[in-house]
Amino acid sequence: MNSYVSLPLRPIIGLALLLFLIAPETAFAHSVAEGDKGYIQEISGVHLVSFLYLGAKHMVTGYDHILFLFGVVFFLYRVKEVATYVSLFAIGHSLTMLGGVYFGVGINSYIIDAIIGLSVVYKALDNMGAYQRWFGFQPNTKVATLVFGLFHGMGLASKIMDYEISADGLLANLLAFNIGVEIGQILALCAILIVMSFWRKTPSFMKHAYIANVILMTAGFGLIGYQLTGYFVS
After folding, report:
1. Which range of residues forms the domain containing residue 180?
2. What is the pTM of this model?
């Protein structure tokens, strides 16, 4: 493999290696930063700007959500298709994030994060055409994106509940956090699409698409393994 052909894969391979090299303190933790947590625990009332920032920060630094989005848009070329799938994902995670926190319904963070890892594996296998080869049919990708969006929202809810947010101004702050999440998602998505647009113009895109999704699947299995290990030893 010459350097020109392998160049488009280097950022993807580097990202996968980085996730494992910096675990578990940062990459696999994906928890509430102590500074942010302390600040939120000390305030009460409506703080829209603060929660907008926290929502955007959580999504931009949320490697598990970004990996899933990367898989979702991998073979989407039209803006309309990207908008449709991202909207389904946003609807899913908004419903469970807002509902979970507001009504105090949570799932063990290790379990929900393992399911989020599973969503990455699922999408990588989908991109590789595994379900058609194994089962002879293609699952509805839009339904799957919505369903996994619901699980991603529960993951967000579990992180927000770690903040121990004051009930005073809770709904307004939650809505601000959710808007921040959407802003962060748009920023992350723009970065992904810019990289993908350049990569797709190279002759090596289709050649390396399978390898890229194998790496994506491996990262998903890594997330699952780490979270399940945490669940059983905690």
Report:
1. 43-233
2. 0.83
